[in-house]
Amino acid sequence: MSLVPNSSPSPLHSASQIQMAGTTRRPGKPAPPSHAAKRLALCLTTRLASLALLLCAAAGVLLYSKTTPASQIVGSSKESSTASTAPSSPTMETIEGARAIWELPAAPARGVLFLAHGCRCRPENFWPPSQRCPGCVGLPEDVAITDRALRRRFAVLAVASAGDCWSLGKEVGAAKRAIQSWTAKNGLGGLPVVALGASSGGYFVSRLAAKMSLAAVVMMISEGVFDPAGAPPGYPPSMFLHMPKDHKRAALVGRNAKMLRINGVEVRELQSLELPLTPTLLSDRIPGLDHGLSERIWKIFSEEGFIDDRGYMRKDGRATPWKDAVVKRGFWEEVSQWAEHIQEELNLAYGYHEMTSLQADEMFSWIEEHLS
Fold first, then answer.
1. For residue 340, what are the contacts with CB-CB under 8 A and spacing of at least 6?
2. Three-class SS of residue 215?
3. For residue 278, is pLDDT > 50?
4. Most buried among 12, 124, 237, 340, using CB within 10 Å?
5. Shortest CA distance to 121 belongs to which of 141, 148, 150?
6. The domain containing residue 335 runs over which residues?
7. Quick check: 188 and 321 in contact, CB under 8 A?
8. Least confident segment among 19-33, 139-153, 234-248
9. Based on the domain organization, do 266 and 312 belong to the same domain?
10. What pTM did the predictor assign?
């Protein structure tokens, strides 16, 4: 029987060889850690990363909560997001000689909401494009208001102004007749009517409220128009939803709110403040616009200096050459179909003069208090 020598070196021999090799050659890569060490390192790294993310998120929430009122934070939640289910069954027709779009809620209506658009706007902004309304535009803030109204069981009627802006003479009487004939035709004649108007539409509904019986009136980014003698008897509860960054208008709102209170009118004031432009603000508020495109647009705003270090717009969206910047980056074709929608959200973020749905839930809760 032959003896086969052990080919494995003894522990001592192995150690001495490794030590000698280390003195005559360049040191190799360190031996990989054991599985247990790997798991420990991964666990520590994951925990540290999670802690860092939590700290960043907490800092962001703290900054946002310090600069944004609670009502506006709620207004930007998922429940109040413009990305909610959009209205989809509007009817287009001519009422009292004016182009009109309307929709009834799925459940029996509890009230009627008349919508008056701003200058150079149109009823089509309040509904998204569909087979029933192929010409509809569906601007996000406008659609969010219509959607919220329908879900709260309001029948919604929007009428086009005769010109770019509303006039305060014959059009007021025409709108009154349109509301009365439309409600009667659709079996809504006994329901309370609420009017909401933005900008020029706000002036219009303030005058309409003096000419017909309304349960409430909402003047958005508008101080309203009133006779020198003040509000007439029976003037409805009034809400001013405005953007205080517009200091001149805010002062006029304060003056008219005081006048209405002196005249015995219940008044509520809501303020819509500026918002930081985050990478996903546009995709969060514009249904159909994906996160990737939103982030690319935000990157342009950051690189071009359109936003400050906190993410707030330096100028109103209308005064920001963001379209030229997108063209320069070469993806205008992707953005062009969303241009009006993006413009509205940029104006909203700047917080100076724009339709807003940020306080829609609070606004409708106040309206509902006055339906009976």
1. 137, 139
2. coil
3. yes
4. 124
5. 141
6. 275-350
7. no
8. 19-33
9. no
10. 0.79
Scan for tokens 């209506």, then name that residue: 109
357 burial level (CB within 10 Å; 0-12, 13-18, 19+)? buried
Backbone CA torsion sign across 254, 255, 259, 262 = positive
Rounded distance between C-alpha atoms, residue 186 and residue 162, angstroms = 24
pLDDT category, 88, cuts 50, 70, 90? confident
Q: Cα dihedral sign for 219, 370, 269, 282?
A: negative
On whether both 234 and 311 belong to a single domain, the answer is no
Q: How far apart are CA 372 and CA 191, in angstroms?
A: 9
The strand ranges marked E within the chain are 91-95, 98-103, 111-116, 154-159, 193-198, 216-220, 238-242, 267-271
Is the distance from CB of 131 to CB of 175 less than 8 angstroms? no
Instruction: Tell me which of 65-74, 169-178, 363-372 is least confident.
Output: 65-74
CATH assignment of the domain containing 104: 3.40.50.1820
Give 98-145 pLDDT, tens digit per residue.
Answer: 999 999 999 999 999 999 999 999 999 999 999 999 999 999 999 999
Q: Say if residue 175 is in the same domain as residue 293.
A: no
* Token pair 């540290």: residue: 48
Q: How many CA atoms lie within 13 A of 57 on its CB side?
A: 6
State both tokens at 155. 């029948």
Query: Residues 6 or more apart from 276 whose CB is under 8 A from it?
Result: 64, 307, 310, 311, 312, 349
Q: Alpha-carbon distance 338 to 343, whole Å?
A: 8
Whether 315 and 262 map to the same domain: the answer is no
Query: Does 24 map to a domain?
Result: no
Helix (H, G, I), strand (E, B) or coil at 129: coil
Closest C-alpha among 58, 54, 55, 60 to residue 311: 60
Distance of alpha carbon 182 from alpha carbon 176, whole angstroms = 10
Per the CB < 8 A criterion, the answer to whether 70 and 361 are in contact is no
Residue 371, CB half-sphere, CA atoms under 13 Å: how many? 16
Task: Please write the tens of the pLDDT for every residue from 327-354.
Answer: 999 999 999 999 999 999 999 999 999 9
Task: Identify which of 16-20, 81-85, 242-246 has the greatest average pLDDT.
Answer: 242-246
